[in-house]
């Protein structure tokens, strides 16, 4: 999708994947510097590991504790996190009083941190994060500033059914529903039925779409959002930073992603 936008803009850049082993991250970064790379994304397992190698970290990346986008500075690299902007984008178009909305986030991995920052940006009243490992849940609570720290609670899966009736926004930030877990859903239909009227079910997974989670939500009459718009919007936000442009052709990026996903089905 980046290359489709670059072609539409008639610019001489290319977006390429590089597989970099954890122990080679610093040398990889130096290599990117040497060959004039203007920016890049990082994904698992580099999202946290790259932090100490950067010259600057944006406030949003510092809040999330993870970087997905790096841009070249005159001297060094600036890391930011466009997953937050990507997550929020499809929700901003919804008419909703976010200050009265309780968000329940399933999973406590890297993406869940971006979701929590996004829910805070929206102004959600409370944010519950559900996980299965108490140590990881306790670690998840660390490193947040106000106002997030005041709104954030962590809980285990056995508490989910008591949270669901107040969840105006229910987000799947686990990988249940994709890959080898394609037949799984993080929430039983019987529990999902307890969502309040008007609730939004949001799955960060974009392939397949709908997942079992979103299929159940739709069948029960709830609004369902998949992860494709988040993917497009985090990519567009990164491309704008790298190219120093006020806008990029998001519709071209969205179509390129759809074409790619359709070709894989
Ligand atoms: P991650 O760091 O590996 O986190 C995955 C989370 O899922 C962990 O909290 C894990 O729990 C939980 N989990 C996995 N299997 C589980 C199970 N059987 N029962 C309960 N919890 C389970 O991955 P991530 O980077 O946060 O990504 C999460 C999902 O978001 C992935 O599907 C990814 O593709 C998607 N994503 C989408 C976008 C987008 O642009 N649309 C961007 C980022 C991520 P433990 O901590 O206990 O292991």
Q: Count of helices?
A: 13
Largest sheet data: 6 strands, parallel
Share of helical residues? 40-55%
Global morphology: globular
Mean residue pLDDT: 96
How far the N terminus sits from the C terminus, by CA atoms, comes to 18 Å
Folded structure, characterized:
This protein is an alpha/beta fold and 265 residues long. The chain has 13 helices and 10 strands. The chain has helices at residues 2-8, 25-34, 46-49, 59-64, 83-92, 110-122, 134-140, 148-151, 160-163, 189-192, 212-219, 228-243, 250-264, and strands at residues 39-41, 56-57, 69-73, 76-80, 102-106, 126-131, 152-156, 167-172, 200-203, 223-225. The strands form 2 sheets. A 6-stranded parallel sheet has the order 7-6-5-8-9-10, sandwiched between helices. The protein has a 4-stranded mixed sheet with strand order 1-3-4-2. It is globular, with a radius of gyration of 19 Å. 40% of the residues are buried. The model has no long low-confidence stretch (mean pLDDT 96). The structure holds NADP nicotinamide-adenine-dinucleotide phosphate. The site of NADP nicotinamide-adenine-dinucleotide phosphate has 25 residues, from α5, α6 and α12.
Short description:
This protein has 13 helices and 10 strands. The chain is of the alpha/beta class and 265 residues long. The relative contact order is 0.14.
Comma- or semicolon-separated keywords:
single chain; 265 residues; alpha/beta; six-stranded parallel sheet; four-stranded mixed sheet; binds NADP nicotinamide-adenine-dinucleotide phosphate
């Amino acid at each position: 999708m980046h290359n489709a936008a670059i072609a539409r803009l008639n610019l001489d850049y290319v977006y390429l994947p590089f597989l970099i082993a954890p122990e080679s991250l610093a040398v990889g970064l130096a290599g990117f510097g040497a060959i004039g790379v203007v920016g890049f994304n990082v994904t698992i397992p580099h999202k946290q590991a790259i932090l100490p190698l950067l010259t600057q970290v944006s406030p949003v990346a510092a809040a999330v504790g993870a970087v997905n986008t790096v841009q070249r500075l005159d001297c060094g690299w600036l890391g930011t996190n466009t997953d937050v902007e990507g997550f929020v984008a499809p929700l901003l178009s919804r008419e909703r009083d976010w200050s009265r909305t309780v968000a329940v986030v399933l999973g406590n991995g890297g993406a869940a941190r971006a979701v929590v920052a996004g829910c805070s940006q929206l102004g959600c009243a409370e944010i519950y994060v559900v996980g299965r490992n108490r140590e990881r849940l306790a670690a998840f609570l660390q490193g947040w500033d106000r106002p997030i720290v005041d709104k954030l609670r962590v809980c285990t899966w056995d508490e989910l059914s008591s949270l669901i009736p107040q969840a105006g926004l229910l987000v799947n930030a686990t990988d249940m529903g994709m890959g080898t877990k394609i037949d799984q859903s993080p929430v039983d239909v019987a529990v999902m039925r307890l969502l309040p009227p008007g609730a939004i079910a949001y799955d960060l997974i974009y392939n397949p779409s709908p997942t079992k989670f979103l299929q159940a939500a739709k069948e029960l009459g709830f609004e369902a959002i998949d992860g494709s718009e988040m993917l497009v919007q985090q990519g567009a936000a990164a491309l704008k930073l790298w190219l120093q442009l006020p806008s990029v052709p998001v519709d071209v990026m969205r179509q390129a992603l759809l074409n790619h996903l359709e070709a894989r089905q």
